[in-house]
Amino acid sequence: MKKNIFFNRDIFHNKKREINIESLVEIFNSFIINFRIKNNFFIKDISSLENLRDFSLLFLDNQNFNQIKSLNNICVITENQSIFEEGLFQNIILVNDFNLTYVQVLNYIYGHEDTSDYFDDFVIVNDSYISKFSEVDQSVAIAKNCVIGRGVKIGKYSIIKNNVIIKNAIIGDNVIISDNTTIGSTGFGFNIKNLGAKNLYPQLGIVVIDDNVHIGSNCTIDRAKIDLTYIGTNSMIDNLVHIGHNVQIEENACIAAQTGISGSVIIGKNLISGGQSGYAGHIKIGDNVTVAAKSGVTKNINNNSTVAGFPAVDIKEWKKHIINQKKNGHK
Question: Which residues are marked as active site?
Fold first, then answer.
């Protein structure tokens, strides 16, 4: 799985300001309870626990950071008093509202599609709008009324059909994207206690579609919050499929129509997913898994499993349940 593919965030989301840590503390003083700053670097990026980047901010709201040591070139922002008192981080800021700080700080540094100061510039080719900041191979076929946004890269011999929108994405070679599909749309990230469009979590990641993938019509694949939403090589995505932010799908997936995969689901190799299946967020699906049509997957699934029903269970157990229902007079 290529979840650690490097990408330059600034190509996709325009950096509005160059700011160092001490200046950040001054500007957002009303959010700050305490801080320690040993290395006052300029902020070049943001990090996740899975992908730590030099000279970056790491928003940390739990204590699942055993792999992190004292890092000179990362500044942690947290509202967890215990994390602050651990003393592991040389650069750390303790805030009074983690979620609001996340929104305010990243919107201050980055322009993105959910802010009014996001910037892109287009040329018109064959009635489609192609960003001047994109990189589209000359062999790519782009049909009518498409939008190819800032930072997008499309590899050799790919086919983009009518009315497709691609933004915040890297597309491999020999990829087919069918009519009316959107790649790189805003992920569904927000604080349930503070709803509203102005409180959306900035979605500053991208989508990576690997080589030889087919994506059907009227699909939506959301960009990641910080890192990648990833679709592996040779995967086949049917019409009317939604793939949420941070989802990772390894190679050779076959996903039938009207499937919905919630955010941060990790899926192994060779998935077969029947139509109208649904996946709860933050679960892991192993290799060589088959999910029957209309199943609701609510928990982790082991390698080499076949599951059905809601909640999805081993298909042999599901069939026994159906037989027992019929014996008891249920149709």
Answer: 245
